[in-house]
Every structure is written in structure tokens, then in C-alpha cells.
Amino acid sequence: MGKQLYHCKGNNVVDRQSAIEYLLDLYENPTHRGPLEDADISVNGGNPGCGDIVTIHMKVGADDKIEEIRFEGDGCTISQAAAELVSSQMEGASLVEIEELQQDVIIDELGREVVMSRPRCATLALGTLKQAVAEYRSGVRGKAARVSSTAANP
Asked: What CATH number does the domain containing 68 carry?
């Protein structure tokens, strides 16, 4: 019987070990972790069931595209790797693209079979980013909104 194959890294087919290594690389070598000075909006998200926390900070350009995303947080490898993935993939995206992005895309990118036992962890960052976009659009902006709300991950 052959190796079980998984989709991740841009929907390339990889084996389970490669999917796990990809998750660990995102977790151990984040390029978007940390605060963001002068963020247009920052939103806290949490998963009460397991204690994962992600705060998304973002700057939005005049063209309604994300100029910069940073995240801070604590939690399991999956939630923090997903926060790095979402931040790196959505930097430069339009607010509409973020609103339209489906959770399944992030789950597939991370390696569905590896993260499906923890879907809330895998989608916390995307849910928090979508909440940040909604709050940004509703006018909650500027320094007063640095930590404007808590987005619960269903």
C-alpha cells in the first residue's frame, strides 16, 4: 500500500510527513509575527475551547488592499502556523478577496488530513482577519481600535 498524500503548499500534493514539516516551518519561522505600529485596526480572536489566541493587526491602503499584516498570539502549533499562513498569503490582498476566502482553502493549504482533527485551530486566524475587515469597513479605525474586539471562532 502506498503513502497517503495530502494537499498543502499551494495545493501541491505532498505526503503526511511533508505536510507536518510545512506546519512546523510556519510555526517555528514566522515572518509576520509581532506588533504593527500604526495599525489601522487590530482585532483579538480566541478559541475558548482550547485557549488559542490570535491578534491580527493590519494596515489598509487607499486602494482597500492590505499593505501589511502582523499577528501576535499563543496557542497550539496549528493555530499559530495558520496565523502565519493567513498573514503571509493575505498581505497585498483586497478586502473583498479576504471576505470571499473560504476556510476550506486555508485547511487545504495547511494539509487537510493533518489539521482536520482541529478545524477551529486551523481557521481561527482567518476568522479573526475577516472580523478585522468587517470592523475596518464599519469605521472602527485608528489607534482607539488597536485591540477593538474579540472574535470568537465558532
From this structure: 3.90.1010.10
